[in-house]
Amino acid sequence: MTTSRRLADRKIAKFQKNITKRGSVPEKTTKKGDNYPVGPILLGFFIFVVVGSSLFQIIRTAMSGGMA
């Protein structure tokens, strides 16, 4: 066997090995659904600020006589 043929066979074998592994992802690289980018305290504070400011705006609009 020539050197180029040996290298070609090695390359083909490596390619075939990768083909059989296609679609099987290791479990450690997959993302878990439990990990949130924002903590629950910060999320609660954000919701508090948004809801509180909207309620404050509604009350202020009602006190000033509605839409003017």
Overview of this protein structure:
It is a single chain. The protein has helices spanning 3-20, 40-63. With 68 residues, it is an all-alpha fold. It is rod-shaped.
Which secondary structure elements does this structure contain, and how are they paired or packed?
Blueprint: H1 3-20, H2 40-63
What would the keywords be for this entry?
68 residues, mainly alpha, 2 helices, 62% helix, 0% strand
Number of β-strand runs: 0
Helical fraction: 55-70%
Rg, please? Answer: 31 Å
Name the structural class. mainly alpha
Order of helices and strands: HH
Largest sheet: none
Approximately what portion of the residues adopt beta-strand conformation?
A: under 5%
- Supply the number of helical segments: 2
Mean pLDDT: 82
From the N-terminal CA to the C-terminal CA, the straight-line distance is 91 Å
User: Rough shape?
Assistant: rod-shaped
Flag low-confidence runs: none
